[in-house]
Amino acid sequence: MNLQDQIGVLEAGVDQLLQAAAERTPCADERAAAVPQQEAPVAGSEAEHAVAEQPQTVAADTAAHPADAAQAQPELHVARPSQNEITLTIGSQTVTLNALQVGQMIEELSNARASMQPEPPPGIPQGWRFASTKNPMMAVQKQSNGDRLLVLRHTGHGWVPFTFSPDIVVQMYMMLTQR
Question: What are the structural domain ranges in the chain?
Answer without folding.
Answer: 3-113, 138-177
